[in-house]
Amino acid sequence: MEIKEEGASEEGQHFLPTAQASDPRDSQFTSIQKTPNEPQLEFILACKDLVAPVRDRKLNTLVQISVIHPAEQSLTRYSSTEIVEGTRDPLFLTGVTFPSEYPIYEETKIKLTVYDVKDKSHDTIANSSGI
Question: How far is CA 55 from CA 26, 47, 129, in A?
Answer without folding.
Answer: 64, 18, 17
